[in-house]
Amino acid sequence: QYSPSLFVHNSREMPLKTQSLTPAYYRQAVHSSSYVMPDAKKRPSFQSFIDGQWCSAQDASAGPAGVPPEAIHIVTWNVDFVEDEIETRLSCALDHIHDVIHFHEHDTAVGHPSIILLQELDVDALAALKGHNWVREKFYLLGASAEDWPNEEHYGNVTLVSRSMNILDIFSLVFEESSLNRFALILDLSVGEARSRVRIANV
Q1: CA 81 to CA 14: how far, in whole Å?
Q2: Which of 11, 50, 54, 60 has the largest CB neighbor count within 10 A?
Q3: Are 156 and 183 a contacting pair, CB within 8 Å?
Q4: Do the beta carbons of residue 75 and residue 114 sit within 8 Å?
């Protein structure tokens, strides 16, 4: 059983209703008159920038010691793989997100960790993502490889997770009947003094 969970969705193909993320949630993914059930579950790559390079972080569930954060920043951004200059647009988007988050943190005694959900990230933009100084310093990368995307598609979703988060589980679910190879990156977090389990899906 999960506590009330946050679901962030930004897909053009399959509109979803925003509800608590129980197994019944998946039945809300209605593309036609029949239900579309994601049934291909896999473990995506999980990377951390260490000693000047991106390395596989094998134990994603370790997390830092101490009480989980009481609040988190969540940002979702569709990069749009169709438009030109995706590397430049992605770098500008990350700079803007950084500025917005830090602007709001001036009102708090302690900065909240952040989750950034990117959709339609072209494979050619992965180098710009992994080369961004803020990303290298502050985040884990979930699903940041074309091998993580269905049929090794040239675009997909990537989730950035603050290193200070208490991560419980990560996995992906593929919508096998999707003509555009849509999938969900799933991230389970521990939040608050009660250590509530919160699930975030990047679709």
Answers
A1: 18
A2: 60
A3: yes
A4: yes
Query: Which tokens in the block code for residue 6?
Result: 């946050």
> Contact at 8 Å (CB) between 184 and 167?
no
Whole-angstrom distance, CA of residue 45 vs CA of residue 80 = 22
Identify whether the C-beta of residue 150 lies closer than 8 Å to the C-beta of residue 109. Answer: no
pTM: 0.76
CB within 8 A of 118, min separation 6: which ones? 76, 77, 78, 79, 90, 129, 157, 158, 159, 160, 202
pLDDT recorded at residue 21 = 34
Give the bridge partners for 114, in sequence order. 73
The residue type at 38:
P
Distance CA 74, CA 20 (A): 17
The sign one gets for the Cα dihedral 128, 61, 56, 174 is negative
Cα 61 versus chain centre, distance = 15
What distance in Å separates the CA atoms of residue 160 and residue 175, rounded to the nearest whole number? 22
Instruction: Give the model confidence (pLDDT) of 115-160 as tens digits.
Output: 999 999 999 999 999 999 999 999 999 999 988 888 777 889 999 9
